[in-house]
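User: Second chain of the day. Same drill as before.
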Amino acid sequence: MPIDFTAIDFETANSSSASASACSVGLVKVRDGVVVDKAGWLIQPPAGHDEFSEWNTRIHGIVASDVLGAFGWAEQFDLIADFAGDDVFVAHNAGFDMGVIKAACAATGLTPPAWSYLCSLQVARKTYTLDSYRLPLAAAAAGFTGFSHHDALADAEACAAIVTHASAFHGAADLVELASLAAVKVKVLKPAALPDPEGAEPTRRRLKVFFS
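Assistant: Same format as last time:
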């Protein structure tokens, strides 16, 4: 199995309810260690989680008016699933990004797939010797510099660069071997419990989108 994965990064409007307030996402598809596709878009956070805090806006620059007319979480979730397919996700501090998926799905009555994921922050700590393993510094160690930190797509590209470089550094043939050589774990997303008073299984809407 080659170095195949999808890197993902979210920005959030606020810190409500375990980061349910996704307001943008970046996705980068890697095949055999090479970026072959990428996409990013704004998201209207779920109702009740859609207040934009001054602190978060200061970090990523997104305000409430920017997401007017954007797909809501339930409307765009299939786009993420369709883009990733059966890939392992990678993210920097992956617990946060997987937590966004879990919390936003729980807030909108959706059940995400049991996606496997790998944390590039953990990989970086086992690959480089740095004073800090924040994304810009870890990406620089992988030779990826000059990107706009806290832009979701740029951050996903930086994350992809770390995992690709670390795979070559460790001589890994795939992500499972990278995890083994770096002594980290490929984990599995466990959806948050959803209220289901009528016993009906949640459904997902199907949307089509073209990526460039």
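Residues 95 and 181 are 21 Å apart (CA to CA).

User: Great, on to the next one.
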